[in-house]
Amino acid sequence: MEEEATPFRRILLIAILIGIISGFGSLLFFEGLEISIHFVAKVVLGYNLPLEGLNAQEIASWSPPIHIWLILPVITLGGLLSGILVYSLAPEAAGHGTDAAIKAFHGDGKVRWRIPILKAVTSIITISTGGSAGREGPTAQIAAGFGSIAADLLHMGPRDRRLAIATGIGAGIGTIFMAPLGGAILAAEILYTRDFESEAILPAFLASIIGYSIFGSFKGFDPVFSTEDIVWNVGQIPFFLLLGAACAAVGMLYIWSFYRSTSYFTDLFARHGIPPHIKPMTGAFLVGLTVILLAYISPQGLMLGLGSMGTGYGFVQLGLYAMMPLSVLIFLPFAKILTTSLTIGSGGSGGVFAPGLAVGGALGGAVGTILHLLIPELVPMASVPAFVVVGMIALFGAVSNAPIAVMIMVVEMTGNFSLLVPAMGAVAIASVLTGERTIYPEQVSTKAHSGAHRGEYLVEILQEINVGDVMVHNDKIISVTPDESCKNVLSLIHRTEHTGFPVLENGFLIGIVTINDIRSATKNGVPSVRDCMSERLICITPGQNLEDALDLMIDNDIHHLPVVDPTSHSTMVGYITTTDIMKAYSRRMQEIGGAQ
Fold first, then answer.
1. Do 317 and 54 touch, CB atoms closer than 8 A?
2. Most CB atoms within 10 A, among 1, 40, 162, 277?
3. Which domain holds residue 331?
4. What is the pTM of this model?
C-alpha cells in the first residue's frame, strides 16, 4: 500500500529539486532555442522576425525573409530530423510534451531518462525551423521527467513520483513563461477536466518560485510581452463576454482540427505501412507549402503565413501594439490552427499552449478592431490590446480546462492585472460553452478516473454506474413459484450455488426466498415457498446507481435485490447481487488503469 501522507520534508525536497531542474532546464532550453532561431531565421532565411518583449519602435523594424522559397526546404528538413530522432530513440516523445507528462501522472509516474533531453532537442529543431509549436510542452516534460527520475533515485514511492511530475509541469511552464503563480496553479488544474490535484499546489508554489528566480537571474524578470497602457471600461464587459463565446467556437475548432489531424496521420501511415520516421516531415512540408502559397498571394498573405509559423508570440506582440491589419487578424486564428494541427498532429515536437495563445490573441484583436470600427466611441483603439489579452486567456483557458491558471499566467506574461475582471467573464463563458472538450486528451474527468488515485474513490465510481447496466436480465434469472416445494428449492440452491431467488406468480413479483428461509422451512416441515418467503420486498430500479443498491443491501443485511419497473414495483425487470456490483467495480477500475 502506498504511503498515507507525504511528509513535509519530502514535499520540501521534491519542490527544491524540481525548482532547480525547471530553472536551469528552462534556461538551457531557452538559450538553445534562441540560438537556433537566430541561425535559421537571420542567417539562413534573412528574416528579421518580430519578437515578443520588444518595444513598439524596436518591433516596427521587423522584415520578412529575403529568401522566402527557402522556408519549404528548411521546415521540411526540420521535420525529417525531428522524426528520425523521435521515432528511432523514443516514440513517446512525439507530439506535445505537456500531454505526455499528464499521461505519466495518471499512469505509473515513470519517465525514461532519455525523454526530457530528446524532447528538448527535437522541440528546438521543430520550432526553430518554422514548425507551429510552443515551448511550454518541452519545459513541462523536462521538469516533470527529471523530477520523476530524481524521485526514483531517491527511492520515493509512486505517490511522491507522481507529485514530482505534477509539480514539474507547473514549475516548468511557469518558469519559461515568467508566470510562477499561474504555473503553480496549473500544476493542480491541468491534470483534470473537472477536478484539482490539491496536493501539488504547495510544492508547485515553491518549485515555481525557485525556477523563476534562477531563470530570471540570467534572462531578467520582465514579462514575456511588452505592453503600453491598456485601456478598458465597464461598458465594454458585454463585448468581452461576446469575445468569450467567439473563443469557445474557435477553441472547439482548434480541438477538432488537432484531433482530426493526429488521427489522420496515424491512420494513413499505419494503413500503408509507411515508417513513422517521416511523418513529422510530411506535416512540416504541408506547413511550408501553406506559408509559401500565402506569401505569393499578397503582402497580407505573407504576414499571415509568417504569423502561422513558430510560437506566434512575435505576432501577438504586434497585435498588442495594434500593428496588424484587420485582414490578417481575421484569418490568422484559422491559419495558426491549421499549421499547429499539421505540425504536432503529424508527430512534431512542441507544445500547444503557445499556438493556443496566438490563436486567441489574434481572434481577440480581430474582435476588438471590428468593434472599434463599428462603435469607436465605446471601443477606442487604445482598448483593442485588451481584447488581444482577454482573447488569449479565454480561448486557451477553455480548451485546456485550466481557466484559472491560464488567466493568471497571461496577466503575469503581460503585466496587466487590471484585465482580470473582463478576463474572468470571458473565460467563464468560453469554458461553459466548451464543456469538457480538451486539447489535452490524457486529462481525465476527476480523481476517481485517475490511475494515480486508484482505489480511493469506491463511492464515486459506484455512483457513475447504473443498476440497469449491471443487472441480470429477466431471461437469465432463475426464479421460483409460490407453490413450489421447499425441498425442490433446496436442491436448486445446491445446483446453482445461489443464495436466494425471486418468487413470481403469473409473471409478477410477490416475494423473495433465501437459503436461510428454505433451511428453516425444511427443518420445521413447511411444505411450500409461499409459507416461508419474505413478502417485504426491498427493490431498486434500473435508473438508480450501484451506490444506492449497495446501501440498500448493507442497511437490510441482504446480498441481492430485485430490479423492478419504476412505474410498477410488482414487475421485475432484472436482479442484482453484491457479486454483480463488485465485478462492475473491478471492471471499471481495470478500464481506468488501462486508459492511462
1. yes
2. 162
3. 8-453
4. 0.79
